[in-house]
Design a protein that fits this description.
The structure holds 2 protein chains of 2 kinds. Chain A is an alpha+beta fold. In chain A, 34% of the residues lie in helices and 16% in strands. Chain B is mainly α. Helices cover 84% and strands 0% of the residues of chain B. Chain B is built from 5 helices and no strands. Chain B has helices at residues 2-25, 32-45, 51-71, 75-85, 90-122. The chains are: A alpha+beta, B mainly alpha.
């Protein structure tokens, strides 16, 4: 009898067990690592997610007819479809192929669902979005759209189906981008509401403003009169409105406001109806159930972008001077036909906020750029009309100070009686943690802003409710659809009557010679009270009375020998018969003045495409040109300047105001300006004990929230004294707050220059002649993922916050996100460029292939053939065909 | 049986390679150790030690496919992207990608030994 071989049994079972352990080791996330097995499976792992060239023929379920796509040398798809459905389907499909990570991140941010995939670090962002209510608005709008605009709804449905066709294919073929692998989730199907939420996040980016809260906080600290001088109703410096009048009388359009209200209790300040929970659609129910993972936790710690992919929290306001557009009549051009130029300024990322596309169907013939998630194009041209957008920056966020009492918990006082808040419960799923519950209180005006909400300044004990255009129904997709089909200026006006939020200056030009600008969108009107202040929530008289009728919004039509231009300046003069917000909301007008001067200069006639490109690349700082003569005149008489300051002054005297990266004077000027503002306001800030984190004097740029931009304007007006009556109100800042004695401008200039050169000497050495603006002024185009090695830059760059080609601050991450010049004499001669590429895949040649052109202020042709066969030879590098499933 | 025992030693490695490659191609990376298991059984039938065959089969299959993907479709660049997203140096990222191959190979080898040993018990 043999003994049982226990040793062999032990070896066999233990090695089997160890093998199983190893397999499990690869299957589960381990510490900072994703599950390695599936991630690095050579066939179905991350390698499969490369944005690789498609086969020449693809079968795509959901198409009605075959679609031909010519891909050009820059990866731009030229889509030729036989039906509009297939056109937008194919656009959605292509967009998702190139930008699925971006699509998913933006929708999650808009809907307050980032914590679901990245954990508690994203909670502040999610809470903010849940309070602002973009997801609820988008859902309610998606439910209404088919009744209001069936064509736009059909367009969105087709686009959505196209995105989902790629999501299904990507999952099936293991082709999801590596981002999804690393975070261990798969994207859900796209919904129409996702696209509308992205529309909402752009409204938030462009129209949401906390300036009234800033104004109130500054008044708390500095006194109401002092704060009011920084928040004037009309611009204090010289401005050039593009629509100088005359203006029609304005009657508030109550019906338009009622039509825009959505059925979940957005009172939008009308107070006309009490919000009801019963009206509220359920909060987004989709949930991605993910295991906790230290992988994710660690990634999150190093990726603030995950909290805020659009940078709204990292960069609370736009800092890049916003946008430019202009149209010049045929009487001024070399071709006898108009040119249309546009360059919207936004935060720059890789991938970009824009995706370039050419669309052809029996009814649509357009070339331009769209935001992923938005069907059609937003900026571009069809065969007869070209258009581009700038942000209007009228007041679209209205804050109401609600009256509450410890004696009436859960209530607020309105129209003579205590009323209960209507509560919306929000459940935020948090990866690796229990769900977070948030109750958002609503009044008749809108959501109540909790103290400490990310991106909102301190409320100083106030209970504030917010009514803003981002919570209104807005048929922007329908407006763009009609714009894409427009043939005449009348068609443009009719199309833009549908546009709601964010309010935009649409510059347009047509092949029959018409030019103009329409500031289309929502303008709230109050019966009593002033926009950009905190309104009394208990007073129904201060509710929104209606909207400015579409035919009375700021607009101008130019003649053939004229031009029209916008650069976010206040679009109308003091005569405009409605309050559209105080001067703080609008740009300070420096870019607008440079554009006007260039286009108006006979020496630049005839205006050609190349000359307009040069204007888009202008680095002329109008603020410097206004202030510098006064500053230099005062300082040349100053015999107490240090030798270093004298050398710097000599450089400033020779300077023409161009913010060139290779010159010293721009660096001196920029530091002087910052120092001057600190000298001017710093003592007041210190005396008032102002929180210098929220209200810093050191990182000013003019932007839509404006409070610090107004410091720049105040500095300009006090220096130039023009116009004197407006400068008068600002004289108080020249006093010494501790003694009340006046401080002289020359003394402030002296101190500012000495401080500036001292700082520069420390950073750049003791020889001012060797200083260069580009040594301290750099541009970085970060990856949307914030991964340093996927970014481009930093590199020295020209310009500043006030130049036509902007790059704000010393470390700029923004600028012209798209440059286009449309030639209305022959639209195939149009040109454009954006600082990235079509693909979000860093391994793709189209990740950043337009960036070198953009950096060098070059452009590429926007070839615009009628048929797939008529594209210029050599331009199309790949032809592929999408075929419906079942087609032979 | 005797013929099988004669030829099987020569077939173990290519057979295991084929199985490993096949399951990798369809994405069942976790099934690669099955190649090792079968190698072990085959090794027992043929009375040859199976560990090295199972290990090598898994490793070679994984590495061959990895090399193919790294060289085709910008795969190496994709590895660099993954490394960048995970904040790893590129070299570390590439090394990182080899870890699953080694662990899977080890699991395959261990399973081969287990199968070989246990099968011997059953004889």
């Amino acid at each position: 009898m043999h003994r049982f071989p226990f040793r062999r049994l032990l070896v066999g079972t233990s090695t089997a067990a160890l093998a199983v352990v190893l397999v499990v080791l690869l299957a589960l996330p381990l510490g900072p690592l994703p599950a390695l097995g599936p991630t690095f499976n050579p066939v179905t792992g991350v390698f499969a997610g490369i944005d690789r060239d498609p086969a020449s023929t693809l079968t795509v379920p959901g198409l009605q007819q075959p679609v031909i796509i010519n891909e050009d040398a820059y990866g731009v798809p030229h889509i030729f479809a036989q039906t509009d459905h297939d056109l937008f389907f194919a656009e959605g499909y292509i967009t998702a192929r190139h930008r699925l990570t971006e699509l998913d991140l933006i929708r999650r941010q808009a809907e307050g669902r980032l914590a679901e995939i990245v954990g508690p670090a994203a909670l502040p962002s999610d809470e903010r979005e849940r309070v602002l209510g973009l997801a609820r608005t988008a859902q309610a709008a998606a439910a209404r759209l088919p009744q209001v605009d069936p064509e736009a709804a059909a367009e969105l449905d087709a686009y959505t189906a196209g995105i989902n066709a790629w999501i299904d294919e990507a999952i099936r073929t293991h082709a999801l981008p590596p981002f999804f692998r690393l975070l261990g989730y798969t994207p859900e199907h796209w919904q129409v509401a996702d696209s509308l939420a992205i529309q909402g996040i752009m409204t938030q980016e462009l129209a949401f403003s906390t300036a009234p809260i800033d104004r109130a906080n500054l008044a708390d600290a500095l006194g109401q009169d002092a704060a009011d001088t920084l928040f004037p109703q009309l611009p204090q410096n010289p401005q050039l409105p593009y629509a100088p009048g005359p203006y029609p009388a304005i009657t508030p359009d109550q019906a338009a406001l009622d039509a825009a209200l959505l059925p979940y209790g957005n009172g939008a300040g009308t107070g006309g109806r009490q919000p009801s929970s019963a009206d509220a659609p359920p909060p987004p129910s989709r949930a991605t159930s993910l295991p906790s993972s230290r992988t994710v936790d660690r990634l999150i710690q190093s990726m603030p972008w995950l909290v805020d992919p659009l940078g709204l929290l990292v960069r609370p306001q736009l800092t890049e001077g916003n946008s430019n557009n202009w149209a010049v009549g045929g009487g001024l051009t070399d071709t006898g036909k108009p040119y249309l130029a546009g360059d919207p300024h936004l935060g720059l990322t890789l991938p970009a906020i824009w995706i370039e596309v050419h669309l052809e169907s029996p009814t649509i013939h357009v070339y331009g750029v769209s935001i992923p998630g938005t069907p059609g194009i937003i900026i571009g041209h069809n065969r007869t009309v070209a258009w581009s957008l700038t942000n209007t920056q009228n007041a679209q966020t209205v804050f109401y100070r609600e009256q509450t009492s410890p004696d009436h918990p859960g209530q607020y006082f309105y129209a003579g009686q205590w009323r209960p808040f209507v509560d919306h419960d929000e459940t935020i799923l948090v990866r690796g943690q229990p769900a977070h519950h948030l109750t958002v209180h609503w009044t008749v005006h809108g959501p109540v802003i909790p103290e400490g909400l990310a991106g909102i300044p301190p409320l100083n004990g106030r209970t504030l409710a917010m009514a803003w255009t981002g919570n209104l129904f807005s048929d922007d997709v329908g407006a763009l659809l009609r714009l894409m089909q427009a043939r005449t200026a009348d068609d443009v006006r009719a199309a833009l009557a549908r546009w709601g939020a964010p309010t935009q200056n649409f510059a347009y030009a047509t092949t029959d010679g018409a030019i103009g600008i329409i500031a289309a969108g929502y303008y709230p009107l109050l019966a009593h009270g002033q926009l950009d202040t905190l309104l009394d929530g208990s007073d129904p008289q201060q509710n929104w009375q209606g909207l400015i009728p579409a035919n009375a919004v700021p607009q101008v039509q130019g003649k053939p020998n004229q031009f029209v231009w916008s650069a976010n300046q206040r679009p109308v003069s003091a005569d405009y018969p409605a309050d559209i917000g105080s001067a703080l909301g609008f740009d300070a007008g420096y870019r607008a003045s440079v554009i006007y001067a260039f286009l108006n200069d006979p020496a630049n006639r005839p205006l050609t495409r190349d000359r307009l490109m040069a204007l888009q690349s202008s680095h002329q700082d109008a603020l410097a040109r206004r202030m510098l003569p006064v500053v230099v005149q005062a300082l040349v008489q100053d015999t107490t300047l240090s030798p270093l300051a004298q050398q710097a002054l000599a450089l400033l005297r020779q300077w023409d105001g161009t913010m060139a990266a290779n010159q010293a004077a721009p660096a001196i000027w920029w530091h002087f300006l910052q120092s001057f503002i600190v000298q001017l306001f710093g003592p007041w800030w210190a005396q008032a004990g102002l929180d210098q984190t929220t209200y810093t004097l050191h990182t000013f740029t003019p932007h839509q929230d404006g409070w610090d931009g107004n410091l720049v304007v105040a500095a300009e007006v006090l220096t130039t004294g023009n116009p004197a009556d407006r400068a008068q109100a600002l004289q108080r800042w020249l006093a010494d707050p501790s003694t009340g004695q006046p401080r002289s401008l020359p003394t402030l200039f002296h101190n500012a220059l000495e401080s500036a050169v001292s700082d520069l000497a420390q950073r750049l050495g003791a020889n001012p002649a060797s200083w260069q603006w580009g040594a301290i002024h750099r541009r970085l185009i970060p990856s949307l993922t914030q991964a340093p090695r996927l970014a481009r830059g930093p590199y020295p760059t020209d310009g500043d916050s006030f130049t036509v080609d902007p790059s704000g601050g010393e470390s700029s991450t923004g600028g012209a996100s798209w440059r286009m010049i449309a030639d209305l004499s022959d639209l195939t001669r149009s040109v454009g460029v954006f600082p990235a590429g079509e693909s979000e895949d860093p391994t793709s040649p189209h990740y950043d292939d337009q960036l070198p052109l953009w950096r060098n202020h070059q452009v590429k042709p926007l070839h615009f053939p009628n048929t797939p066969q008529t594209t210029p030879g050599g331009w199309v590098v790949r032809v592929w065909q999408l075929r419906p499933k079942g087609a032979s | 049986m005797r013929a099988a025992a004669r030829w099987l030693p020569w077939l173990i490695l290519p057979l295991a390679l084929l199985i490993a490659a096949a399951v990798l191609l369809i994405g069942w990376w976790w099934a690669v150790p099955v190649a090792g298991l079968l190698t072990g059984l085959a090794g027992q039938v043929s009375r040859r030690h199976a560990f090295s065959s199972g290990f090598l089969a898994a490793l070679l299959a994984w590495l061959a496919l990895l090399a193919w993907r790294a060289l085709a479709w910008r795969g190496l660049a994709q590895l660099a992207v993954v490394a960048a997203l995970a904040r790893l140096p590129t070299v570390a990222g590439v090394a990182f990608a080899l870890v699953p191959a080694l662990i899977t190979a080890l699991a395959a080898g261990l399973l081969a030994v287990a199968a070989w040993t246990l099968a011997r018990l059953a004889r």
